[in-house]
Amino acid sequence: MDLGCGSESLLWAIALRARHLVAVDVDPARLEILGQFAGLGRPRGVHTTALALCGRADPDDFPARCRSLAARVRADCLTGPLPAALTESTVDLVTQFGLLGLCRDDEHFTTRFAEIHRLLTPGGWAAGANWVTHDPRGRVKLTSRLYQNAAARAGVHLPHLTRITTADPEFPAVWTYVGKTGRTPSCPPHHRHQPPPS
Q1: Could you name the CATH architecture of 89-183?
Q2: Which residues form the Methyltransferase type domain (predicted)?
């Protein structure tokens, strides 16, 4: 399930090879554009680049990604409860690229992070990226501690959380993360520290 998908869910689907892709956005026009792209089944320049970067040489790969678009759901993932169309079932992977960076403060971010990750099946995965804007007015300040607190509330372990500096003066950095639902796996007994024999 790609939340705040805009019109480019098919771009992420190239790398992920999702069997069933559910695209969610508040803007019906963007969902319509996405449906038109999927209906055509022909990669544009950005898709061709992504296919090459992912080593997808099979000419049927992109049409297969288009056929994986199972549903387009109109919903605002930043305000109020998610609609029943989303919460009545669980998914193996939730993605969001840019959505949570639009939150206004720490509590808003933490609450929405927890809300959207409740869609995951036990053992499910999450992946996302959010831009750090040069003009922070009205936007949450993204930090490692904020992500960790939000993930703890959501019951998500973050094996990957990285802030990447960019060359764009308007968006000088981006936070990326990969998460997994459930507890952090415990260390096997033979890896735990054992006291020396007496």
Answers
A1: 3-Layer(aba) Sandwich (3.40)
A2: 2-126
